[in-house]
Amino acid sequence: MEMDTMMKKLGSWIFLIGVCVALLVGFIFGLGETLKTNLTSWVSPLSIVLAVLGFLVGVFSFFALGAITQERVPTFLIASLILVALAVFTSTTTWTVYYFKDLAPIFSSITKYLAIFVAPAALIVIIRALWDTTQAKQLIQG
User: Fold this and answer.
1) pTM of the model
2) Which tens digits make up the pLDDT trace of 86-119?
3) What are the extents of the domains in the chain?
4) How far apart are the C-alpha atoms of 1 and 22, rounded to whole Å?
């Protein structure tokens, strides 16, 4: 198997693992908040793990070896923006639906941890997109 193909698969697997870990961590912390369980000692280590996984996804994508291909960059960045905005919105407001008020912390926690995972990847993809934009402009001008 070619090294390039192996690296692309690894980048895709890291993305999938990061999403699964973020969903699981978000669900557990949201459920813990609903059940009034103190899990605060785990917040920092798990957030760091998610941020590192997101950073790795971004690095793989920077070198066109990950799940985020050149064609998918705009979609990924729009989705990342919406996810981060949703995480901020749900963490700063007290939104509840009467019958589902116990689900609000779970949803808020899941969006928060997905955003923690996606934000570093989005930052690196943004840097790559800006780099590609300036390189294309320089080629056209000169």
Assistant:
1) 0.87
2) 999 888 766 665 667 778 888 889 999 999 999 9
3) 3-133
4) 30
